[in-house]
Amino acid sequence: MTVGELARDEFLARLEHPGISLDTGPFLIRIKTAIGELADEVRFLYGEFPVLPDGGITHFRLELRRPAGLRRWWRPQVFSLFDGERRFEPMPLALAIPTLEWSLNWCVAANAHHHVMVHSAVLERDGRALLLPGTPGAGKSTLCAALAHRGWRLLSDEFALLRPADSQLVSWPRPISLKGPSIDLIRAFAPDARLGRTIPGTPKGPVAHLRPPSASVQRARDRAEPAWVVFPTYRAGEPARLTPLSRARAFYRLAQFSFNYELLGPPGFETLSRAIDGCDTYDFTYSKLDDALPLFQALVAPSSRRVAGS
To answer: Looking at the whole model, is its pTM more than 0.90?
Structure first.
């Protein structure tokens, strides 16, 4: 049974106590809250995910609460607990859903060291994966959302999870976080995209979360082989352009985007080396999605293999 198949009243009751446990692919997570606004957003954004029986083992247990006392009513706040312990400063109550998403990101970045983790969007076509590492403002999430609605399978908007055993990419298809102008851009570009409400006033400006496509959630346990590493940069007025990048340079930059490369030592080096050796590597600049997407489609063509990053 999925979240969306549960009656709303049953979902809200289970979310409040003992918490709703979800199978998100590589991680089993339990979310607990009595905050009504957050509950409805969770139900919408995670509607495709399977619900696990109550009381089972999970990897991460998050609870979001409102403070007691006057703070419940005066400038209301929300704080998150990981395994019953507070790890972060309270946030305004209006930012409850971003707080949940940021907390889940922290859970993985701080604990999932059985993977090499890279801050990158990841998508797949025909078993081959595209990595889009990017700094804030580079257009990573915008490209990710657009490609996910043009035939690419979403693995993740935030994490490239590489298995040290074989450098394959593990899927974790959670909601895509869109910011500022990207929200309306994706609404216009993909009218079938299912976005949650726009939340103003976050540290990153207005944010809206895009519900992951059904097919991506259903294939959350399917891995993919790294095939392309593309470093995007949004530049207003620039034509879309893929520029070949040496694999040595791409490896160095990918390591900089990793959450735990240095912590893992030699296994981290070997995993990233094996992954980058199988990839074509590029820099990419763009300003318009309609110009950008055909270039990614061209990468999938068999004739495009092994032309870059030598």
So the answer is: yes
